[in-house]
Write a structure and sequence with these properties.
- 21% of the residues lie in helices and 30% in strands.
- It is α+β, with helices and mostly antiparallel strands and 257 residues long.
- It has one domain (2-253): Deoxyribonuclease I, Chain A (4-Layer Sandwich), CATH 3.60.10.10.
- Strand 7, helix 3 (130-150) and strand 8 form a beta-alpha-beta unit.
- The protein is globular.
Length: 257
């Protein structure tokens, strides 16, 4: 059985609750988590040249995490702010996705391999408007189906700030989890100083297993961003990595039943 520490973190453009922009503080929170895979949201400036905010070379040197390369712009690190960092992973395919909606939003789909263990990661940041989130959820489902048909079948994980805490039939989470998923306990991640809403999610296909799902709640994380990171252990067996998977049938972590 192979397992990975995975995480998702909306870094709020590296602006903390003390209103200071401190990328080094965000890097320290990431090092606290010590993930094998982490999806970041809001990793770039919003306006102007949309420059990336983290010192990726220093982060790689101190944590071993390397940014998945994206053709996102001369100075941007992410795609619509979505950045994925991995440790000791072979990157087989990277596909930026434009998501529908009134706000500019995107996602990144990445095929990874570590010692024969194959994984498809979908990192996303959904919109603030309900109608946009529903359209974006449908786009993510379609992208996973297309990847499965065009490339291969492998376990899939969706990481990100989905901006939704209601698991209803007519919500974006309801669409993503419409095949009667298994529920994990609710994990509140927003706002960081007193978390009450489960906005940050980890969802997996049935051929992957999550354990120890939790918010990363430390004194540093409570001030570094307006969101707490969420993290879990993701397990894949050798058989699961090669058998047919069902990437559209996602199980929810952090969901409210």
């Amino acid at each position: 059985m192979s397992s990975f520490t995975i995480a998702s973190y909306n870094v709020h453009k590296c602006v903390g609750l003390d209103m200071r922009r401190d990328p080094a503080r965000i890097s320290r929170v990431i090092s606290e988590i010590a993930p094998d895979i982490i999806a970041l949201q809001e990793a770039d400036r919003r306006f102007g040249d949309r420059a990336g905010l983290l010192d990726l070379d220093h982060l790689r040197d101190t944590s071993g995490l390397a940014a998945v390369p994206l053709e996102a712009g001369r100075r941007s690190h992410g795609w619509h702010g979505n950045l994925v960092l991995t440790r000791n992973m072979d990157i087989e395919d990277v596909r930026p996705l434009r998501l529908p909606g009134l706000e500019p939003r995107g996602a990144v789909m990445i095929d990874l391999n570590r010692d024969g263990q194959r994984l498809r990661v979908l990192a996303a940041h959904l919109g603030l408007l309900r109608a946009s989130r529903i359209a974006q959820a449908r786009a993510l489902i379609a992208a996973l189906a297309e990847a499965r048909a065009a490339r291969d079948e492998r376990p899939a994980v969706l990481l990100g700030d989905l901006n939704e805490w209601r698991l209803r039939r007519r919500s974006s989470l309801g669409l993503l989890a419409e095949h009667k998923p298994s529920f994990h306990r609710q994990v509140a991640s927003f706002p960081a100083h007193m978390p009450v809403l489960a906005l940050d999610r980890i969802m997996v296909s049935p051929d992957a297993h999550l354990q120890d799902f939790a918010a990363h709640d430390t004194p540093l994380a409570r001030v570094a961003s307006d969101h707490l990171p969420v993290k879990a252990r993701l397990s894949l067996s050798a058989a699961q990595a090669t058998e047919d998977s069902e990437p559209l049938r996602l199980r929810v972590a952090g969901g409210r039943g």
